[in-house]
Amino acid sequence: MSQGKMAILAKDTAIYGISSIVGRFINYLLVPLHTWFIDPKSGGYGIVTEMYAWMALLFVLLTFGMETTFFRFAGKEGENEPMVYSTTLRLVGMVGLIFLVLVFSFIGPIAGLLGYSTHPEYVKCFAVIVALDAFQAILFSRLRQQHRPVKFMILKLSFIFLNVLLNVFIFWLMPKMFGSFPGLENIYVKYNYGVGLIFFANLFCTFIVSFGFIKEIKGIFYGFDRQLARRMLSYALPLLLLGLVGILNQVFDKIAFKHILDDKEYAQVQLGIYGACCKIAMILALLTQAFRYAYEPLVFGGSKDKNSSETLAMGMKFFIIFGLLAYLAVMFYLPILKYLITDRNYWSGLGVVPIVMMAELFMGIYFNLSFWYKLKDNTWWGALMSGIGAVVMISINILFVPRFGYMASAWGGFAGYGTCMLLSYFIGQKKNPVNYPLREIGGYLLLAALLYIVYLICRPLPTWLSLTINTVLLLLYVAYIIKKDVPLSSLPLVGRYFRK
User: Fold this and answer.
1) Would you place residue 414 in the very low, low, confident or very high pLDDT band (cuts 50, 70, 90)?
2) How far apart are CA 71 and CA 144, in angstroms?
3) Residue 343 DSSP SS3
4) What residue ranges do the domains of the chain occupy?
5) CB of 59 within 8 A of CB of 134?
6) What is the pTM of this model?
7) Could you tell me the end-to-end alpha-carbon distance of the chain, in angstroms, rounded to an integer?
C-alpha cells in the first residue's frame, strides 16, 4: 500500500472512527438510561431489541446492495459518475416508496403477524424510518465517495445528539411533568411506558437529518439511465442476497427468539437481557463500520491499481491488529463497562459478550476477505458463502435456543460468521490469491490469546487488582503494536517528537 493511500485510509478512518466512537459512546448513554427506566421483567427492552432487529433486516432489503454497487460503478472507467449517482438515488427512492405503500395498505395483517396488533403505529413508524434511512444511505455513500468525512461526521453526530436528548426527555423529564400535564402520563402509559416513544423520537431525528442533504439530494435530477440501471441491478442482486443472509446472521436470533420459545412473555424478557448485553459487544461492530466507511471507496477507487493486492493484505493486517485490541480492551474492563447497564437484573446475560465480540471480529475479517469477489464482479460467491453461514447460524438457534436460551443465539452467530470467514479465505485464495502476512497476523493472535488466558486466570482476584493486571496486559499488547508496526514517530501530531 502506498504511503499516500495509507495516509488517506488513516485520516478518513480516524474521522469516521471519531464520529462512530463518539457517536456510539453518546448513544451508549441510552443503554444506562433505558435499562434504568425499563424494567427487565416488563419485556420492554425486548420490544426495542426486536423492532430494531427488524429495521436492520428491512434496511438491507431497501438498499438491496446499492451502496457497494454505487462505489463499484462510480469508480469504473468510462462510467458517467453523476449519472451513476442519480440512477442509484432514483432506484432506492422508488423501492422505498413502493415499500411504504405496501406497509400502509396492509398494516393490520402485518402488525398482527409481528405480534403488535395493539400498536400498529410502531410498524408504521419503523416503515418510514427504514425507508428514509435507505435513501440517506446513498447520500452518505456519496459523501464517502467524495472523501468528505467531516460532513458525514457532523450529520451522524447531529442525529445521535438529538436522539439522546429526546430520550432523556422521554424517560427523565417527561415523568416529572405528569402532575402539571396529565395528558403526558396517558401518552407515556399508552406507548408501553415510554418504549414506543423511542421509535417516534428516532423518526423525528431521521427526518431532521434529511435537511442536511439538500445539496446531495439535487443530484437526483441529473437523469436516469435504464441500461445503466439494468447493469447495476445485475451486479446488486447477488449483493442483496449476500446482505440478507449477512444481516440474518446478526438479527435472526432477535427476530425469531420469541417465536422459538413457547412462553412468549418469558422470551420477551430474555430477549431484552440478551439485547442489552449485546450492546457492550458492539464496540467491534463500530470499528468494522468505521474501517469500512474509509476502506470501501479507497479499494474500489483503486481497483485497477497494481498495488491493490498489497492494499488488501495490509488492510486485513491492521484490521485484525486493532480488532484484537478492541476485544481485549472490552474484556479487560468489562467489570467497569457492565455498569453501562444500570439495572443488575440484566447482568445475567454478560456471558454472551466475549462470544458476540468474537463473532463481530469474524464478521470484520469476512468483510475484508470479501473484496476478491466484489472486484471481479463475482458477487454470487458472497451470496453462496453467506447463505451457508446463515444456515449454520439458523440451525443452531432453532436446535439449541429452546434448551440453552440466548447463549445458543450467541454461539450461533459465532459459528455462522466463522463459517463465512473460513469459506471466503480458502475459496478466495484459489480464485484471487492475496499474500496476506499470515506470520505477522499469527503473532498478534498468539499474543492476544496468551494475554486473554492470563486475564481468565486473574479474573477471580479482587476487582481493583484484576483491573490493574489487565491494564498492564493491555499496555503490553499496545507496546507490541508500537514496536512491530506502528512506531510512535509515524503518528500524526505527536510523531515529530519521536523522530530521530
Assistant:
1) very high
2) 9
3) coil
4) 3-436
5) yes
6) 0.70
7) 24
